[in-house]
Each structure stands twice: as structure tokens, then as C-alpha cells.
Design goal:
By secondary structure, the protein is of the alpha/beta class. About 50% of the residues lie in helices and about 15% in strands. The protein is built from 23 helices and 22 strands. It is elongated, with a radius of gyration of 38 Å. The C terminus is likely disordered.
Length: about 700
């Protein structure tokens, strides 16, 4: 009982409690009534040389007669325009507009009201002087606006004083860019109470702005003056705020900035500027891709949207760095169903949770399995009947595959074959292989296995176009299945319709196995940063760029093509490492040592995007080219591939030699070449001793 009474009294007190802002609004209304009337009295006083005794009594009487009506109208107009409900400590352009509107409306009423009173009263009142209306309107506007914005001004001055007195400025910032974005960053830093950063100077290439000031900060010069002003103003942070600059311009500026040893931050682009997200928090750390010196690759998203919409799409290796980005971009193009297939459940789970959160309406299926398991991959195709397959499942790490060459063949070549066969068997419309520039004149087993993958999809495509798909052998390794592991799957009743294509590109920044994450870890540990060779070069592309080009290349496919993505100019890995060290605020070879470890087994000094024989054809996207395929004997290749499969599952030590027999451009290392010649010589000796027929019988 007592508790109920207490709660009731509490509710009553809460109900009748007057909020503080209402009290402030009441005081403000009283001030406004006094201010609007004082404004016009001051106007009358100024009109007569600030001498009250010179003001005619008729003017005083008319003014006093109109005061009550004008006070009521002003209170109503100000209330309607919410001048008593704004939080004035955050007053901005909107409050300025509403205050101006209120002054204009009430001033118009004042002019019309007094004029009407004069006309009705006849000779009792004299018409007010013109200056009375003009000065009255201006003084009223200043008084009404001043009281409101003075509160914010006092807070800003107090915060600025507190920031100066209480905080030690540890971040002395150079701002590059005196445009609109730069001004927004500057003002955001100035008003941020929690930050201890201060903009000390601004750099801009427009000479018209030099030696002038923005909010009290000097524009000290152009990009050529960066080094000088870093020393002059003791700068330790540089913010690049030129969202409209081209990639080349940003690269040139950042190349100067990284020599200063300052911490660098960059406004990502025009998107933040257009959406009004230009704040100090929107600045991001300068990444190594900002130093590549090329614009972000653009693709025709409408083509991709039309192609992927309402289709069932399978991504093998969907949990990897390339596969997961494929899934992200596909999920945003309204597929009928997206199927993620991966052997590693942690990666698959991670991308599953991400896509579920971002695309709750997406029809998403995540399956665990290996492309090496023909039974599993066939079951997936038979169950879900995908229209398009992006085959990203592969072993890609060159040194690891050199130590386990048979695994590269099993997973890359044979896994691709089994996936391609299942796609063809189940009526898949298009099969897109994710290949690599390491397949061009390969010097390692990983590159050779990816070249085998390209040859596999070219073989499938040609056999289908020649109506010979029934002649494509079914590869299996399940000894207990006499008819093959796919004997229980339905046979093709109609002509195969699958179009097989490959998309080849180079190294991807931030992908699994990329040098950039490794360099960052080594820098964080204090070094040394390990580079295999001072002259080694690579082509680089960001993951989203590579994937968007893969998706668009898929829309151009007609079957049998090897699409080659233009990755711009190659980058020296040594330069890349030094740039990362400088971006981290260290000096190469002084703070962080660089060690050259020598080329690893199977590693090239440079990567090639195309074999010399292939040539190029153009596509509607100038960054996507088509390589003319190198002809090879498909029948012989398919026979050799089956033998290669058996050799790989037997873990043959001569697997590289078998791969080299199939990939004419595979460049074996000198030691292996000598061993091959020695084996060939011994074969000739044996044949000469026991006879050719007996030799082949023994080999079987």
C-alpha cells in the first residue's frame, strides 16, 4: 500500500515538474518582447540624433499604442518557428534561417500594422519615418540573433581556452588541401574537445591561397614546400584532404610526405565529401595501395547486375580472400541463390555470418567439402543445379606447393577437372576459373598446376563445341567403384551447354599469402623486413577490384577464353617494403632493417600476364583482355591428365617431370632438367638392351 502511494506521488511530481529548457524558453520570450520593442524605440531615437526630447509626441504615442499588439504577434511567430525549442549550444545554419524568417515576418507586420493604424486614426497620428522601419528591422534582427548565438560563441571560446590551458598539444598537423574538404577537417579538429591535435599549417598548390589564412591557420605554400614546413612548424602528422585528386596526384604528394617520417592520414574519396562525412574520424591511415599511382578500376555494374540477378551461383573456395569477396559482391546483385562451398569451415562460417547480417533476405547456402571429392562435388551440383560457377578453390602458396607438389596437382588440376565435369554433367551454364599470372611460363608447380587448370577448361569447352562431350573421361580415384565414382549420377540426356572460361590476374593486396600483411607484421615486430631479391617485381590489385573485374569478365564469356586483367605497371617489392616502413613512421635500414633472403624455390623475378604466343583481343572494358589460346593436342592431354592424377595420388617424386611433359612452357629448375635427361638416357639404354616391346610391357 505504502509503495503504491510512493509510486503515485513520484509520477505526479514527474508529471508536474517543469523542465529546465522550458524555464529558459520563458526567460527568452520575455527578452524577445523587450528586445523587439526596444529595437524600434532605438530606431526612433537614432532618427532624431539620439535626443529623446526631439522625438514628436505623435510618434511616441503611436509607438506605445502599437507595442502590445506587436509583442503578442512576435511571441506567436517566434514560437511557431521553434525559436524557443532549439538547443542553442548547437545552433547552426538552420537556426539562422529561422531567426531571419521570424525577423522578416514580424517586421513586415510592424510596417503594415502601424501604417494601417495611421490610416484609420486619420490626423491623430503621424506616419513614421522610413528610417524607423529600416533601422528597427536591423536592430531587432541583431538583438534576437545575438542572444541566441552568443551562447554558442561563449561555449566555443571557453572550450578553446580549456583546450589550450589543460591539454598538451601532441599532434601538430599539416593539412594538405585548402578546399572545402580541408576547411571541414580544420573546423572539426578545432571544435573537437577530446582531441589533442592542432592544425599548424596548410599546404595547397594554388598560389592564390599562399600567405593567406583559413580560421587563423596560414596557407604556407605548395607541395614543394612540404619538407620545409614540416621542420618549421614541428609537424608530426600530415592529413591529406583532397578527395578530388587523381591517384597519380595523391601518389606524388604521398611520396613526398612519406619522406618526412610523419604519421600520414588520407580522406578516402569524393563519397565522404558528397555525403557530408568529412570529419577527422573519416580520415584513414594511408595504405600501400594509395602509393600504386592509379585510379580505382571501374566496372559496368549494370551488366553484372543483369547477368547475376535471379541465378543460382556457386562459389568454390568461397571462404578464401578472393572467394569471400566474390560472395560479397554477388550477394549485392540479387541472385536467386548463393552457394558457398569450402573445405575450411572457419572461413565458411565467417563469410556466412557476415552475409546473413548484411543481406538478411539472401537465399544463402553454405556447404563444407573438397573439390577433390568427386562424389561430394557431384552431389552439390545435382542437388542445387547452379547456373554459374566461380571456381576459386585452389592451393596458391608457391613455396608450400614446392614442398608438396602432389597436393598442388590433386587440389588445383584434378579438383578443377572434377568440378568442371560435374558442372557440365548437371547443365551449368557458365564455369569461370580463377587463374593467376603464375600460370604464364610457370617456374613452379603451383603455376604449372594453374596452367593445367586453364588447359582443362579449354579442353572441356572445345569438346562440347564439337559435340564430343561423351568422350571426356571421368576421372576417379575410388578403387571400389568399378564404373567410376560418378556412375550413380544421371547421364547427360542432351547436348552439354556449359561455357568454360578462365580469368587471370596477378597478386592481390591483402589476400591470404600477400606480402603486405607479412611486411606489416615484421614492421610491428621491429624488423627485419625480408625481401627475397632487390629487383623482384609484381603486379598488384586490390581484392574488390580483382573480383569486380572477374564478375564483368564472366559476362563477356562465350566459351574457351582466357581473360587477362590489366593490372597497370608492376611494382618493385623492395620499393613496396620501404614505402610501408616509411608509412609506419620509420626509416628503412636505420630503424627497420631490410634483409634479402634470395629467391625461394620456383619463384620468378617478375610475373608475366600473357605468354608471348597468346596475343590480345579487346573487350568493351579496356582493362579486360582476351588471350588467344595456345593450341595443344586435347586427346593426348586428357590421357596424360589421367596418368598425372594417378601419379599424384601415388605421391610420385617425379610429379614435376610429368607436369612438364604436359605444360610445354613449364620451366623446370636446372637440377631437375639434368635429372630428366639422365632418366631419358637410361630409358634409351634399357630399351636398347631388352627391346622396345618388352620395355613397354614392363612399364605397364
Amino acid at each position: 500500500m505504502g509503495k503504491d502511494i510512493f509510486e503515485r506521488d513520484k509520477r505526479i511530481k514527474k508529471k508536474f515538474r517543469i523542465e529546465h529548457w522550458r524555464v529558459v524558453a520563458l526567460y527568452l520570450m520575455v527578452y524577445d518582447i523587450l528586445a523587439v520593442n526596444a529595437a524600434y524605440f532605438l530606431a526612433l531615437w537614432l532618427r532624431f540624433d539620439c535626443r529623446f526630447q526631439l522625438i514628436p509626441k505623435e510618434y511616441i504615442n503611436l509607438y506605445l499604442w502599437f507595442v502590445p499588439a506587436y509583442s503578442v504577434v512576435c511571441a506567436i511567430v517566434f514560437w511557431y518557428l521553434r525559436l524557443y525549442k532549439s538547443i542553442w549550444r548547437f545552433a547552426s545554419y538552420t537556426e539562422l534561417v529561422r531567426t531571419t524568417m521570424a525577423s522578416v515576418i514580424t517586421s513586415v507586420f510592424h510596417v503594415a500594422g502601424i501604417t494601417e493604424v495611421c490610416q484609420l486614426a486619420g490626423k491623430h497620428f503621424e506616419r513614421m519615418p522610413i528610417s524607423y522601419y529600416v533601422f528597427g528591422m536591423l536592430i531587432q534582427f541583431l538583438l534576437i540573433l545575438g542572444i541566441r548565438f552568443s551562447y554558442r560563441l561563449i561555449l566555443l571560446l571557453r572550450n578553446s581556452r580549456e583546450k589550450t590551458n589543460e591539454q598538451v598539444i601532441t599532434g601538430r598537423v599539416m593539412l594538405i588541401g585548402a578546399g572545402s574538404a580541408g576547411q571541414m577537417i580544420l573546423r572539426d579538429l578545432n571544435k573537437a574537445k577530446e582531441t589533442n591535435e592542432k592544425v599548424c599549417c596548410i599546404i595547397d598548390d594554388n598560389p592564390n591561397k599562399w600567405n593567406r589564412f583559413i580560421d587563423g591557420v596560414p596557407v604556407a605554400g605548395g607541395r614543394d614546400d612540404i619538407m620545409e614546413n614540416v621542420e618549421k612548424f614541428h609537424i608530426n602528422k600530415i592529413f591529406l584532404a583532397i578527395p578530388s585528386a587523381t591517384a597519380e596526384e595523391k601518389r606524388d604528394i604521398l611520396n613526398i610526405c612519406k619522406e618526412t617520417g610523419c604519421e600520414l592520414k588520407n580522406l578516402p574519396g569524393m563519397y565522404q565529401f558528397v555525403t557530408g562525412e568529412v570529419t577527422a574520424n573519416a580520415m584513414k591511415e594511408v595504405a600501400v595501395e594509395d602509393l600504386l599511382g592509379r585510379d580505382t578500376i571501374k566496372v559496368n555494374m549494370d551488366e553484372i547486375f543483369r547477368y547475376l540477378k535471379d541465378k543460382t551461383i556457386l562459389v568454390t573456395g568461397g571462404g578464401g580472400s578472393i572467394g569471400s569477396e566474390l560472395c560479397r559482391q554477388i550477394a549485392g546483385h540479387q541472385p536467386r541463390q548463393l552457394i558457398i562451398f569450402d573445405v575450411y569451415e572457419n572461413n565458411a562460417y565467417s563469410i556466412q555470418q557476415e552475409l546473413k547480417k548484411k543481406y538478411p533476405e539472401l537465399n544463402l547456402t553454405v556447404l563444407i567439402g573438397s573439390v577433390r571429392d568427386s562424389r561430394r562435388i557431384n552431389h552439390v551440383f545435382e542437388t542445387y543445379k547452379p547456373d554459374v560457377v566461380y571456381h576459386a578453390a585452389a592451393h596458391k602458396h608457391v613455396p608450400l606447393m614446392e614442398d608438396s607438389p602432389c597436393e598442388a596437382i590433386k587440389n588445383n588440376a584434378i579438383g578443377t577437372y572434377k568440378t568442371a565435369y560435374a558442372a557440365m554433367l548437371n547443365g551449368c551454364k557458365r564455369f569461370v576459373l580463377i587463374s593467376t599470372d603464375k600460370a604464364v611460363n610457370p617456374t613452379n608447380i603451383m603455376g604449372a598446376s594453374k596452367r593445367l587448370c586453364e588447359m582443362i577448361i579449354q579442353s572441356f569447352d572445345k569438346m562440347i563445341k564439337e559435340n564430343r562431350e561423351d568422350e571426356i573421361p571421368r576421372l576417379y580415384v575410388h578403387a571400389e567403384d568399378e564404373g567410376g565414382s560418378m556412375k550413380n549420377f544421371h547421364k547427360m540426356r542432351t547436348h552439354a551447354v556449359t561455357e568454360f572460361v578462365a580469368v587471370r590476374f596477378g597478386n592481390v593486396l591483402g589476400s591470404n599469402g600477400s606480402v603486405v600483411p607479412l611486411f606489416k607484421k615484421q614492421i610491428a615486430a621491429g624488423g627485419p623486413v625480408t625481401v627475397t631479391h632487390p629487383d623482384i617485381i609484381r603486379y598488384f590489385m586490390t581484392i574488390p577490384e580483382a573480383v569486380s573485374l572477374v564478375l564483368q569478365a564472366g559476362t563477356y564469356a562465350k566459351g574457351g577464353e582466357i581473360f587477362v586483367l590489366d593490372m597497370g605497371s608492376p611494382v618493385k617489392i623492395d620499393t613496396l617494403a620501404r614505402s610501408l616502413i616509411k608509412l609506419s613512421g620509420y626509416k628503412p635500414d636505420i630503424d627497420i632493417k631490410i634483409e634479402y633472403t634470395g629467391l625461394r624455390p620456383g619463384e620468378k623475378l617478375y610475373e608475366e600476364k600473357l605468354m608471348a604466343e597468346e596475343g590480345l583481343k579487346t573487350t568493351p572494358n579496356k582493362l579486360i583482355h582476351i588471350g588467344c589460346p595456345i593450341p595443344f593436342d586435347i586427346e593426348k592431354f586428357l590421357v596424360q591428365l589421367e596418368e598425372l592424377m594417378y601419379k599424384s595420388y601415388e605421391n610420385s617424386e617425379n610429379i614435376r617431370r610429368f607436369a612438364a611433359d604436359m605444360v610445354s612452357t613449364y620451366q623446370l629448375e636446372e637440377e631437375e632438367k639434368v635429372e630428366v635427361k639422365r632418366e631419358e638416357a637410361s630409358v634409351v639404354d634399357i630399351q636398347g638392351y631388352i627391346g622396345e616391346e618388352e620395355y613397354h610391357l614392363m612399364a605397364k
